[in-house]
Amino acid sequence: MSLSHKTILLVEDNPDDEVLALRALKQAHISNKINDIVVAHDGVEALDYLFGTGMHCGRDISIKPTVILLDLKLPRLDGIEVLRRLREDKRTSLLPVVVLTTSNEQQDMLDSYSLRCNSYIRKPVDFIQFTEAIRQLGMYWLLMNEPPPI
Amino acid sequence: MKPEILAKLQDYCGDAVMLEQIQSIFAEANESCKQEIDQAYFQVEQQKALFRVITRLREPLDLEQIFQATAKEIRQLLAADRVGMFRFYANSGGDDGEFVSEDVDQHFPSVIGQKIHDHCFGQQFAVHYQQGRIQVVADIHNHGLSDCHIQVLSQFQVRANLVVPLLQGENLWGLLCIHQCRAPRIWSDREIEFVTQIANHLGVALQHAELMAGLQAEVLERQQVQQKVQNLNQGLQRAITDLQAVNVELEAFSYSVSHDLRAPLRSIDGFGQALLEDYNDILDETGQDYLRRIRTATQRMGQLIDDLLNLSRLIRSEMHLEPVNLSLLAEEICTELQQNEPDRQVEFIIKSGLIVQGDPRLLQILLVNLFQNAWKFTSTSIQAQIEMGQTLTKNHIPVYFVRDNGIGFDMNYVQKLFKPFQRLHNTQEFPGNGIGLATVQRVINRHGGRIWAEGSLEKGAIFYFTLAAEENA
Q1: Minimal Cα–Cα distance from B432 to chain A, Å?
Q2: How far apart are CA A74 and CA A96, in angstroms?
Q3: What pLDDT does residue A3 have?
């Protein structure tokens, strides 16, 4: 994976949250560090993107996202299931996944960490706090964190 | 006399008169011999009958069968017209009863089911039988019986009777009655002895039957108790299943609240903020103020949802009971409160060594809420004081209390105190979401205890609680 090429995969079904997340990323002034922000609207789309299947058939899957921001409550395949499939597949088992969700249900947290999510962030209602969270996430995973050598 | 013996006698004595005398002597001797043989025969039959009665007692037969067979046996052996078992009604004091079993000659009436009330058998009739008296009457008209007694006996055509008590241990259970109906009859000692022996053996059977009945009653009672316990258990099992179902539903509900209710709030807040940032120049001060209010309300609602979720988690979480030192917990909480607001002067009085059985996490939540309240509502007091102690109910159950000398509350509204989102003071003066005491109430409920409060305006408040189910007062 080229070091210069940085992609974020945002798995989010709520269009409002998508707009707000993109806005927060833009405000964090890290968009210029990113080549691409790909949005998947459900679990199936997310897996299609990562494995080059379905609607992303033929995509060069050697281009992997630097970090995946994964919502849990998703249509069709939910976030936990997406995480499970990622971890089971050699090609994606080491990809950094940040669970970004509304819930702070204990079961969700336990499931996510059991499946080796790299971080669990609860989206705050307060947009200013939300923006700050996204900014820090972007800073950390795109700039500070060394991605796995895959 | 056999002809050859007669011929021999004729040979010995030629005298015809002498022969006749010898003949008569022999006949007499013969007759007595015959009687003795008869008696011996009767005795053997008696023994056999007794043996059969005893053998029958060892068999798992019910009383009715034993009585029936024994009555038949006695009647045959004694050539009596009727043998009946008379039973006194329980608690009748030996005054009333009826024949429960009999064997009777076909020419005479049955006495089965005949109820007899003692109005003429004479005083202490039953008492004497209880002491073992046997009545031997050869002729009812010639025995000095009362007219009324004779009338009762005549009713059954009795001419002679032999009555032996049937004793169940010490108790007079009934009478074994042998009746002669066709003619008066002199009862021989042997016959009386025989009937007495039979009556004794029947007494043993009666005792066995009583023990058996007692045992059966006990077994039945145990079975009933067992059935009751089983029913209770089934009821409990059903209640548990229902509760589990409710819990599962509650969990699904709360999961959905956690995910779905907050998401729109984020949109409202986010786009409100976006409006403020991107369109600030077109919005005047009032417009901006409105948007800020929208955002404040949204965030408050987000907080309320979180509080509600926490409250519902508290109800669902599993309990782990262990000894908990309430005093230590309270001291830690007080230290933290003081550290957060070092400028405040508050005197804490915590009774030491208050150890209770409870869930440490829930009890921590309980005390945090009570102390935070006390801390908050003494913020305007000059010499603030917060105390935790213990007293006893009249049933000697420990009651714990947290007392403060803060602003207190109006007892008229005490009912509202423990309900979620109910507040007795305005938010500006004393911030809070109205969930603290509702939480406290739930912690107490989960421990099976009780909480109540006393207070008055400007005179402080005191919260009492118990942590175990109280006995019915």
Answers
A1: 19
A2: 19
A3: 47
DSSP string for residues in B85-126: EEEEPTTSTTSEEEEEEEEE-TTS---BT-EEE-SSS-TTHH
Give the tokens for residue B320: 């782990």
Q: Is B161 exposed, middle or buried (0-12, 13-18, 19+ CB in 10 A)?
A: buried
Both tokens assigned to A75: 């249509």
Q: Which chain B residues touch A124 with a CB distance below 8 Å?
A: 266, 302
Q: Are β-strands B96-104 and B115-117 bridged in parallel, bridged antiparallel, or unpaired?
A: antiparallel
Q: Searching chain A, which residue's CA lies closest to the CA of residue B263?
A: A102
At the second CATH level, the architecture of A7-144 is: 3-Layer(aba) Sandwich (3.40)
Contact A42, A35 (CB under 8 A): no
Q: What pLDDT digit, counting tens, does each position of B12-58 carry? A: 777 778 888 888 888 888 888 998 998 888 888 888 888 887 787 77
Over residues B356-374, the pLDDT tens digits come to 989 998 999 999 999 998 9
B117 in contact with A, Cβ within 8 Å: no
The model carries a pTM of 0.53
Structure-token pair, residue B103:
């064997």
Distances (CA, A) of B198 to A94, B26, B162: 100, 39, 13
Nearest to B67 by CA among B259, B201, B228, B246: B201
Q: Which residues contact A137 (CB under 8 A, 6 or more apart)?
A: A67, A69, A98, A100, A119, A121
Three-class SS state of B448:
coil
> CB–CB of A127 and B273 under 8 A?
yes
**Closest chain A residue to B271, measured at CA:** A20
Instruction: Please give the domain boundaries of chain B with CATH numbers for all domains.
Output: 60-187 (3.30.450.40), 209-316 (1.10.287), 319-473 (3.30.565.10)
Quick one: tokens of B392?
């006893």
Residue A57 three-state SS? coil
In tens, the pLDDT along A46-93 reads: 999 999 998 988 888 888 899 999 999 888 888 999 999 999 999 999
- Using the Cβ of B244 and the Cβ atoms of chain A, whether some distance falls under 8 Å is answered with no
Pairing of strands B160-168, B135-137: antiparallel
Confidence bin at A41 (pLDDT 50/70/90): very high
Query: Are A20 and B270 a contacting pair at CB < 8 A?
Result: yes
Determine contact, residues A51/A89, Cβ cutoff 8 Å: yes
Reduced to 3 states (helix: H, G, I; strand: E, B; else coil), residue A65 is coil
Write out the two tokens for B140. Answer: 């009812």
pLDDT grade, residue B279 (50/70/90)? very high
CB within 8 A of B436, min separation 6: which ones? B369, B372, B373
DSSP per-residue string spanning B390-434? EEE-TT--EEEEEEE-SS---GGGGGGTTSTT--SS-TTTS---S
Q: Please determine, for residue B122, whether its predicted confidence score (pLDDT) is greater than 60.
A: no
Residues B259, A72: C-beta atoms closer than 8 Å: yes
Note whether A14 contacts B: Cβ–Cβ < 8 A: yes
Residue among B262, B275, B313 with most chain A CBs within 10 A, to mutate: B262
**Nearest-by-CA chain A residue for B304:** A125
> pLDDT value at position B127?
77
Helix axes B189-256, B16-58, angle to 10 degrees: 10
